[in-house]
Amino acid sequence: MNRRSALGRIGTFALAGTLDVDRIGEPHGRKRQNTALRKIATEEACTFAEVAGELRKVVRAGGSNLDLRLLKSIYDAPPGVEPRFLPELLDFDAKRLVDMDRHGVSMHVLSLTAPGVQMFDAKTGASLATLSNDRLADIVRRHPKRYAALASFAPQDPQAAVKEMERAVNTLRLNGFIVNSHTNNEYLDQARYWPILEAAEALDAPLYIHPRAPSDGMAAPFRDYALESAAWGYGMETGTHAVRLMLSGVLDRFPKLRIILGHMGEGIPFWMWRLDFMGAPGGRAAGRSNRLKPSEYFQRNFAITTSGVEDPLALRYCIDRLGVDNIMWAIDYPYQTTAPAVSFIETAPMSDSDRRKIAHGNAERIFRIGSQG
Amino acid sequence: MNRRSALGRIGTFALAGTLDVDRIGEPHGRKRQNTALRKIATEEACTFAEVAGELRKVVRAGGSNLDLRLLKSIYDAPPGVEPRFLPELLDFDAKRLVDMDRHGVSMHVLSLTAPGVQMFDAKTGASLATLSNDRLADIVRRHPKRYAALASFAPQDPQAAVKEMERAVNTLRLNGFIVNSHTNNEYLDQARYWPILEAAEALDAPLYIHPRAPSDGMAAPFRDYALESAAWGYGMETGTHAVRLMLSGVLDRFPKLRIILGHMGEGIPFWMWRLDFMGAPGGRAAGRSNRLKPSEYFQRNFAITTSGVEDPLALRYCIDRLGVDNIMWAIDYPYQTTAPAVSFIETAPMSDSDRRKIAHGNAERIFRIGSQG
């Protein structure tokens, strides 16, 4: 593995977004809401026809997995019923750019939408991750000022995943990675996935842990009232994943790993006092081996985005709790609409300096996006 | 059932704590930290030898239930190992009062510690709830200025539970009820438990939903790193319970039911924007029938306590999000120590008026505790 040499190459990567002059998709003269504030949206979903086709097969195969409910409505809508979100997910050159222009959004950091390739068999997953990453690299090449992108990988085969992660950064120059919480009901703290964490750290590229529905082993109470998805279950699943990473001690092995959580940190910032009080180092008898307090890991290893939580009070709390430097704005397009997300970042009470960091500055640093817009 | 007549009798109940003059357990001349601020601690744990003995049998019977880990350390410690917390849980007349006096705590609102009687068979559970409630009433009679108490009931037999709830309020004059989240992996939104919710509403007595470890159907990811208990799992279990109550629509049937959540609201205040956005009325297709937004239920039907979360920032967020009138202070004695909890309520930044409400005023109103201290 050439991770050390990869590090040398990444130095120039920070400028990748600014090298080409590309006016395709630039604002078409429409009125921007606030052109003075560069807005980089950091959790923006997309897919490709091949992935959508395989997800339709997953839906039709059925099973008890709780993601299937949403997946059916998107990828296997009954005849005559409009598939939810699918046209928007598949689009990069038309409606998406118009939406961005209309609302003054400078850039989408694109990522293959949940559950990514994680519900496929290992071979299909690896193949579709490669396809997705190639397509994303092409899209970013065509619209370098409008798009950055996170690479997918198939955790089902960790060794193959590492190879694809290296290719995605070293060759395709993508801006980080995305994984959708559990894979086959397993979490990244388990030793078989450590090569993935090791690769993300060595490549100095952030790993966005995006939600999916609760894993089978915690699914039961979420089967009623559609609790499995964005209203509640996504946060319980993804927050639990992050707490496993902190209390397992695995982050002591990968001290420079950078993890991103959406949805205002998946509840963890609010629980930080209790996590520290109950999860301080020294819990070996309980099976924990964390050397740091959860808040120390969170400060060192995590960043959060505002996706899906357009709440000025929660943002204020997070700025005060975490500091402003690891908070990034997001829309969660097309699952949430752009206008209120833009209004949120433009109007939530904070200093101008904080607003610039959250709207674009932190994303430029964390995702190595050119700062010249 | 005589719930209507019960309502009439409750009118005088608000003064129950002030009728007797009882100096037993009053401060023994020790220096109080802040005698000017009455401090009523609202989630204070206790048990009785009979309950402890039955819990030891539950521990020895074994099984996969995640509460058994903590229960073993308390109720079935190996020979030569000090049982955790048990002496403090069993004490009402000695160490507990000394601890209260030393730190200027006016009153404990006592409750039978988790999992209450909910892991026993229905008959044993009902019998021990009666025993616990009788004992608590006696303790409150002996120390009316130092103790109030919440009644237990055994949800395993909802009809018997209702009878005991009526007795606990109408005859014993206890101050509300406590239930420890799920019972046999079932939640209170299920129709068989509606009589319990109906009784609490009719008796105009609050129902404290206290944590226990995640139910079997969501337990798997919590089996590692001791995630099942206070560090993380308690909040996921209890928060999920509360969200089920909101999104099921069951609170439309019991609009005056008052539910109390500990631990700064079990995460729900932080998720409120997203809960509203994703859980607004109209989700019938998803199996929901809530007529109000989650935040509207939370405002109308819930109060929270600060137990286990001595975080001024989280408290500030909750005051701003929920308003100050439904937030109460708690220690979680003996699981957490008194001094830092007292320091928290005495020093966290807030107005004097807010401090008085959180330290005692809201508890006096919600639990009908005499305000003359």
Overview in brief:
With 373 residues, chain A is an alpha/beta fold. In chain A, 45% of the residues lie in helices and 9% in strands.
What does this structure look like?
The structure is a homodimer of 373-residue chains. With 373 residues, the first copy, chain A, is an alpha/beta fold. The first copy, chain A, contains 17 helices and eight strands. A five-stranded parallel sheet of chain A has the order 4-5-6-7-8. Chain A has a three-stranded parallel sheet with strand order 1-2-3, sandwiched between helices. In chain A, strand 4 (177-180), helix 9 and strand 5 form a beta-alpha-beta unit. In chain A, helix 7 (122-142) runs parallel beside helix 8 and helix 8 (158-170) packs parallel to helix 9 (194-202). The model of chain A is unreliable at 1-32 (pLDDT under 50). Chains A and B meet through helix 10, helix 13 and helix 15 of A and helix 10, helix 12 and helix 14 of B.
Largest beta-sheet characterization of chain A: 5 strands, parallel
* Largest interface between protein chains, with number of residues from each side: A-B, 57 and 57 residues
Sequence of secondary-structure elements of chain A? HHEHHHHEHEHEHEHHEHHHEHEHH
> Outline of chain A, from the CA principal axes?
globular
What share of residues are in beta strands of chain A? Answer: 5-15%
Distance between the termini of chain A: 34 Å
Strand order in space, largest sheet of chain A: 4-5-6-7-8
Briefly note the structural class of the backbone of chain A.
alpha/beta
Q: Please state the oligomeric state of the protein chains shown.
A: homodimer
Topology, number of strands of chain A: 8
Unreliable residue runs of chain A: 1-32
User: How many helices of chain A in DSSP terms?
Assistant: 17
Mean pLDDT of chain A: 91
Rg over CA atoms of chain A? 19 Å
Helix content of chain A: 40-55%
